[in-house]
Design goal:
The complex is a heterodimer of chains A (about 475) and B (about 160).
Chain A: H1 16-20, E1 36-42, E2 48-54, H2 56-60, E3 64-68, E4 99-100, E5 106-112, H3 115-122, E6 126-131, E7 169-177, H4 180-186, E8 189-197, E9 200-201, E10 209-214, E11 220-224, H5 229-240, E12 247-250, H6 267-277, E13 281-284, H7 287-293, E14 296-297, E15 300-308, E16 314-326, H8 332-341, E17 352-360, H9 374-391, H10 396-403, H11 412-416, H12 433-443, H13 446-459
Parallel strand pairs in A: 1-13, 11-12, 16-17
Antiparallel strand pairs in A: 1-5, 2-4, 2-6, 3-5, 7-17, 8-15, 9-14, 10-11, 10-13, 15-16
Helix pairs in contact in A: 5-6, 8-9
Chain B: E1 2-7, E2 10-15, H1 22-28, E3 47-50, E4 53-56, E5 69-71, H2 80-91, H3 101-114, H4 120-126, H5 138-156
Parallel strand pairs in B: 1-5
Antiparallel strand pairs in B: 1-2, 3-4, 3-5
Classes of the chains: A alpha+beta (about 475), B alpha+beta (about 160).
């Protein structure tokens, strides 16, 4: 192999020394004189209207500077998803709203001279809720009579993506290449299965944290733990209705994000408090808030129907994905498209159908999370590949090597599915899958485990389900 | 009230409230290398050494630190074991986002102080209370192995 100066060599990281020395490189390693501490009152109900909210008692507590509710903030819909503009995400979020849509949704913001005082003041806010029926099962979210989660007139999708909030549908997509019916007819085996992926949280060790203040030229500075500083700037400008040029975003070192911080989760709320009080404000998520009111990997229900021939080629693939985005749309459309577009092209097949639907429920909100939808799809298709291989009497690794996309090849799915628009034709110019299959199976001792599993299963053929395979 | 501590070999007095945990007192006084990740003693990002033993400072009552010796990440630069750990953590790619690193290095230091030749199992047990979400631990464990080897070689010279 050719010798390079940098490629293939170990490089000293430029910020390494400061990290091992524990230098103050993160958002919260910073103090400004006069800084206030913000805390958010969160909804105890999955779906409710705030009928009455009384903040007088909280305001009387010594050290409390301000309490904000939906009555105080501009009513401009925006998306919390940090994506390119125009955004393929519904504008369905307000800084604070009269309606709460999941347990952990924002109700009010307290700013105080000390964090513990802000915390104490939360208990002094008196709220009367009108509890509404809620929907928790994504299968039932778009049924007739289901509670409508985004019934506000302002919510809309900036791109034409089949947004139908009246039916709790964030997006719906249907795409097909080739002839699926013929594909299934030509198959020697057809297997149909349903797979479910659960919620999971990124758990960055540094929780979400933002500090906002005015600089010497009265520009709003947002010092935030984010993966998307430019989107923070644009989205906060929209939410607060101030010019982009009046905002400066500082992204110091961040303590892990994994997609959780590809989201404008607190910045506009904290900035609002600075605009109103004129003082620096700090808003830090507790670990509990990170789980309840942060972002998650979207749960999905994936139906797969695959037809294969005895020689290990696929003749038809049909994938149907029902995705739960929780109470807000956020990355709900793009993640769904990726489940199709990042998984299906890997398996060569002429006849492919992808149907996807993302629905609102009164549950925590999904967001970007490592793999961005591909993870869920690969989970389902990985199991399916194993079952197909077994059904046609082929070794799984051989089957995978035969069926995966190769160097120089393209896929009709690349064009069929983009992120909120048509995709683009692509040719694979390099492919490391053979090495991945080889090395990966060796590292996890796959062959031995597989044989052991088969032996075990054949011994108790009748109780296959108990093995949790 | 005030507490007196020996922190990073320096005598200091800190103003504390009764229900303060050590984590907040240290950060209030500029020891920003002590991180807060969970406030439940689960993640270990707030690890400091109290009289040489790793503790989760997010649960440690500040008043209990009165008269004790505290070591934070800021205080190990000139320390034989500490500085080698800082060096090899970088060499081995054991630092990614860096947020768990101060805690990891301090827990490793406490281990290497009492065990000059730890097995992989010893290392895993010593780092049992420190969570990392980026590197997946392999590189961190390798770094501690390499540090103990380096320190042994230095002693032999």
């Amino acid at each position: 192999m050719k010798e390079f100066k940098v490629v293939g060599k170990s490089v000293k990281r430029v910020d390494g020394i400061s990290l091992v020395k524990g230098k103050p490189v993160y958002v919260d390693d910073f103090y400004l004189p006069g800084m206030l501490y913000a805390k958010v009152l969160r909804s105890p109900h999955a779906h409710a209207i705030i009928k009455r909210i009384d903040t007088r008692k909280a305001l009387k507590l010594k050290g409390v500077v301000a309490v904000f509710t939906y009555k105080d903030v501009p009513r401009i819909p925006f998306t919390t998803a940090g994506q390119g503009s125009p955004e393929p995400s519904p504008y369905d979020t307000f800084i604070l709203d009269k309606k709460v849509r999941f347990v952990g949704d924002r109700v009010a913001l307290v700013v105080a001279e000390r964090e513990d005082i802000a915390e104490e003041a939360l208990n002094l806010i008196d709220v009367e809720y009108e509890v509404l029926p809620a929907v928790f099962d994504p299968r039932k979210a778009d049924e007739k009579g289901a509670p409508v989660i985004h019934d506000e007139k302002e919510a809309y999708m900036p791109l034409p993506l089949n947004y139908n909030p009246k039916k709790n549908i964030v997006t719906y997509v249907e795409a097909e290449v080739g002839n699926l019916e013929r594909g299934f007819k030509e198959a020697d085996v057809v297997i149909e299965n349903e797979y479910e992926c659960h919620y999971s949280n990124h758990v960055p060790i540094e929780t979400h944290i933002v500090i906002t203040y005015f600089d010497e030229r009265d520009r709003l500075v947002i010092r935030t733990s984010t993966q998307v500083p430019f989107h923070v700037r644009r989205i906060v400008a929209r939410a607060l209705n101030i010019p982009v040029k009046k905002i400066r975003v500082v992204k110091p070192r961040i303590g892990g994000g994994f997609g959780a911080k590809q989201e404008i989760l607190n910045e506009e709320l904290c900035a609002f408090a600075t605009l109103k009080t004129g003082r620096p404000v700090r808003l830090l998520y507790t670990r509990r808030e990170e789980f309840m009111s942060g972002r998650t990997r979207h749960p999905q229900i994936i139906k797969l129907k695959v037809g294969a021939k005895k020689d290990g080629t696929l003749s038809a693939v049909s994938m149907n994905v029902l995705m739960n985005t929780g109470a807000y749309g956020s990355h709900g459309a793009t993640v769904l498209f990726n489940t199709g577009s990042k998984v299906l092209p890997l398996y060569k097949c002429e006849n492919v159908r992808f149907v996807g639907k993302t629905v609102y429920t009164n549950l925590p909100v999904g967001g970007a999370y490592r793999g961005y939808g591909a993870t869920q799809g690969h989970f389902a298709f990985g199991i399916m590949a194993d079952e197909i291989a077994e059904a046609i009497g082929m070794d799984t690794l051989e089957f995978l090597k035969k069926v995966h996309i190769k160097e120089g090849e393209g896929s009709p799915i690349f064009r069929m599915l983009g992120e909120g628009k048509e995709g683009v034709e692509q040719k694979i110019t390099s492919c490391g899958l053979p090495q991945c299959i080889e090395l990966g199976s060796k590292e996890i001792d796959w062959k031995r485990k597989r044989e052991e599993y088969l032996r075990e299963r054949n011994n108790k053929e009748d109780s296959r389900g108990e093995l949790g395979w | 009230m005030k507490i007196k501590v020996l922190i990073n070999k320096e005598e200091k007095e800190f103003e504390v409230r009764v229900n303060d945990v050590l984590l907040d007192v240290l950060r209030r006084n500029g020891y920003y290398g002590v991180k807060c990740g969970c406030r439940e003693g689960e993640c270990g990002a707030c690890t400091v050494l109290v009289d040489g033993k790793p503790v989760t400072s997010c649960l440690y009552p500040a008043v209990r630190a009165e008269g004790k010796s505290i070591t934070t990440i800021e205080g190990i630069e000139n320390d034989k074991i500490g500085s080698v750990l800082q060096e090899v953590f970088l060499e081995e790619g054991a630092v990614q986002c860096g947020f768990c690193t101060p805690g990891m290095i301090l827990s490793s230091k406490a281990l290497l102080e009492k065990n000059k030749n730890p097995s992989e199992e010893d290392i895993k047990l010593a780092l049992d209370g420190n969570l990392c979400r980026c590197t997946g631990y392999v590189k961190i464990i390798n770094a501690v192995k390499k540090a103990s080897k380096k320190l042994r070689e230095r002693r032999e010279k």
